[in-house]
Amino acid sequence: MRKIIVLSMITLDGVMQAPGGPEEDKSEGFKYGGWVAPYGDDEYNKVVQKELQPADYLLGRKTFDIWVDYWPEHGEFWPGINERTKYVLSKKLKKTDPKVKGWKNSVVIRTVGDIKKIKSGKGSDILVWGSSKLVQLLLKNDLVDELRLKIHPLTLGKGKKLFDIGTIPAAFKLVENVITPSGVIIAYYKRAGKVKTGDLTV
What we know:
Radius of gyration: 17 Å
Number of helices: 5
């Protein structure tokens, strides 16, 4: 069985929208695109380079549309991004769409059942970048094996969030962490069963 690993840059209040640049995602009037830029340093970049190792990818439609306009021409910065399989979850995107056919190894899937079938098969781990609605769907259906979070020291108040509607109660175990000189907490969590409770008043 393959693991589904969610990688996300988030703020302290969980916003994950448009970390990379001002034009990345202005939907719903978002004004803070590129909020990650002030926090880059050697330690941060080292972690990112490690995460860019070749894998297969699972993307939401919005993230796919952003990526397909960029990575085919900039693949030298991300080894394997153009060669490896990109699964894009969409109810409306046609498999014959020029973008799908033009970016090699792009595969349109339709349902959670399709994701489960891919996950249960053989192959490399499947990485999820961005794709807020897709991540929430995965969390709702308990399909996330690992969370790899970069928690940045700022709040934005508004914007697409990592944890939102549909997240189920679930426990995770911290397996790796780094704090960068710029104050970013990089934390890797693995799924660890059910939520346990106790009573601190006893």
